[in-house]
Design brief:
By secondary structure, the chain is mainly β. It is built from five helices and 31 strands. Strands 10, 11, 12, 13, 14, 15, 16, 17, 18, 19 and 20 form an eleven-stranded mixed β-sheet that branches. CU-O-CU linkage (C2O) binds at residues 131, 133, 171, 173, 307, 455, 457, 505, 507, 509.
């Protein structure tokens, strides 16, 4: 693996100075112990909209604007949304793929090793910042909420793509407003390709299909409904009553009689899907958050929690033209105050879609004959074996308890403070650590025990162990950045803090939980600098 280089330009240089201050403070703080208030960043909200020659020569240079817009989702009145719009300034224009008639941001295609510059301009009437979910980038390029920019201002991103090929995504990350901004339409896919993936020869072009699953609620005038803050939403988050695929309701995918690569993203705020084929055939899973698995695995069903991605091999070569199938979400018990708690009682809509019941996600219709036999490769990629002797804390994993405290979801009893890092949230650069997340409720009542998808910023990790009853609905084999913990589950992950010092987030990817403060910083400390 090539060592990534941090490409930091002049404009972000001011952030870098601020970062160094943080480093020093973190070291002092570790000796003092406890939860540390970091220095207020002078760079927060700073305008960085000048481009200057710093030696960073991007392979792809794009502008990305968040803006209010309107989209025709239904016949009749169009829907007011917030969305990302992109333009290629330098590089191949085909790297930006618009999804027609969708509020979703364009799909951004990049290759491993490329240098990327993204000039983000925020034109929605509130603060925002973009996070590259799943990408391994320097701390100041990661979209931490302390870098939010107000309406009319910009933030410059420059980094080298060093992730494996895979299905990643980008979305806003302002503290307390991520859920409404994503819900309003701000999200898009970022696909990384690399040589290892290209050598496998998976279906591509029109046979490589992105499928972003989201739930939304609309009023009678086709406008998005969003509420948060009542007790139920505090508990379980926001649930829409209509499933949209790539921004479209009642979605049907026309396919030919051949094999496809389906890239699924759960881009919903809170809704978890128990994904299965409608016709009962097993799912053939070829990739997860961090790219291709070592080899395909089969599951009857698989949970897909907010933030998670799943790549499937879908072969229709044995189906006649006219055949119909599709994907459904199967019933499951998500804990909470019985299934009643999972109900979405929205009176302004005549539909109802409780989470954990059986419903259709989208339909598939075989419409074309295609003599293109494709067989599922049995070797997809190389996933390194776990080197137990290299782990720095085998016998004392960091512990993170997911709990409700004072009617707020917490991690180890704490909620998010912009620059707080506790002693047990500091890691030394170069270390490999086991982190154990615990969703067993800490002896609290069962109604206080619900699913939490846990996400780490800045890196892909491995799942070492999962203690729970629902093993078969997970694909823990490959690289992950988001893992679902059902009520009663504990999970051990292994993360390698090989490079990139600084402040990164980890949080629940139920976006209402995240906004409520079920999010914390971890700090990767440079050991050798002495500051
Ligand atoms: Cu999609 Cu902080 O994450
Ligand atoms: Cu992320
Ligand atoms: Cu949560």
């Amino acid at each position: 693996m090539t060592k990534p280089t941090a490409n930091i330009s002049v404009e972000v240089g001011s952030n870098r100075r601020e970062f160094l201050k943080l480093t020093g403070y973190g070291t002092l703080g570790l000796m003092a112990g406890g939860v540390l208030p970091f220095l207020t960043p002078s760079a927060a909200g700073q305008n960085q909209n000048t481009i200057s020659g710093t030696g960073f020569d991007p392979d792809l240079d794009i502008s990305l604007v968040s803006q209010p817009d309107e989209v025709a989702i239904f016949p009749g009145e169009s829907t007011r949304v917030w969305r990302y719009r992109a333009m290629v300034i330098k590089g191949d224009p085909s790297r930006i793929i618009e999804i027609p008639r969708s509020y979703l941001g364009p799909i951004i295609k990049v290759f491993q090793g490329e240098k990327i510059r993204i000039r983000f301009t925020n034109t929605i009437p509130e603060e925002s910042i973009i996070h590259w979910h799943g990408l391994h980038v320097p701390a100041i390029m990661d979209g931490h909420p302390r870098y939010v920019v107000p309406q009319g201002k910009s933030f410059l991103y420059e980094f080298e793509v060093n992730n494996r090929a895979g299905t990643y995504w980008y979305h806003p990350h302002p503290h307390g407003r991520t859920a409404p901004q994503v819900y309003g339409g701000l999200a898009g896919l970022l696909l990384v390709h690399d040589n290892e993936e290209q050598a496998v020869g998976l279906p591509d072009g029109e046979y490589d299909v992105p499928l972003v699953i989201q739930d939304r609620a609309f009023d009678r005038d086709n406008q998005l409904l969003y509420t948060s803050g009542n007790m139920m939403e505090q508990m379980i988050g926001f649930l829409g009553d209509l499933i949209l695929i790539n921004g479209k309701p009642n979605f049907t995918l026309p396919v030919s009689t051949t094999a496809y690569r389906f890239r699924l993203l759960n881009g919903s705020n809170s809704r978890i899907y128990k994904l299965a084929w409608q016709d009962g055939r097993p799912l053939s899973i070829i990739g997860t958050d961090g790219g291709l698995l070592e080899k395909p695995v089969n599951r009857q069903y698989v949970f897909l929690a907010p933030g998670e991605r799943m790549e499937l091999w879908a072969d229709f070569s044995d189906n006649p033209v006219g055949h119909q199938t599709g994907f459904i979400s199967l019933p499951f018990d998500g804990g909470g105050m019985g299934s009643g708690m999972m109900m979405n009682k929205r009176t302004s809509s005549n539909q109802n879609l409780p989470m954990g019941t059986r419903y259709s996600l989208f339909r598939i219709k075989v419409t074309k004959k295609k003599e293109k036999k494709a067989s599922l490769p049995q070797v997809l990629s190389e996933i390194p074996k776990i080197q137990w002797n290299e782990i720095d804390n085998v016998n004392r994993p960091k512990q993170f308890n997911l709990n409700m405290g004072h009617m707020r979801w917490t991690i180890n009893g704490r909620t998010f403070q912009m620059e707080d890092v506790a002693e047990d949230e500091i890691v030394q650069i170069g270390s490999k650590e086991i982190w154990e997340f615990n969703n067993t409720g800490g002896g609290m009542m069962r109604m206080m025990n619900i699913p939490h998808p846990i996400h780490l910023h800045g890196k892909q990790f491995r799942v070492l162990e999962r203690n729970g009853v629902r093993h078969q609905g997970y694909v823990d084999e490959g690289w992950k950045d988001t893992v679902l913990l059902m009520p009663g589950e504990r999970i051990k992950i292994l993360a390698d803090f090989e490079d990139y010092p600084g402040l990164f987030l980890y949080h629940c990817h139920n976006l209402e939980h995240e906004d409520m403060g079920m999010m914390r910083n971890y700090f990767v400390r440079e050991t050798n600098t002495g500051i």
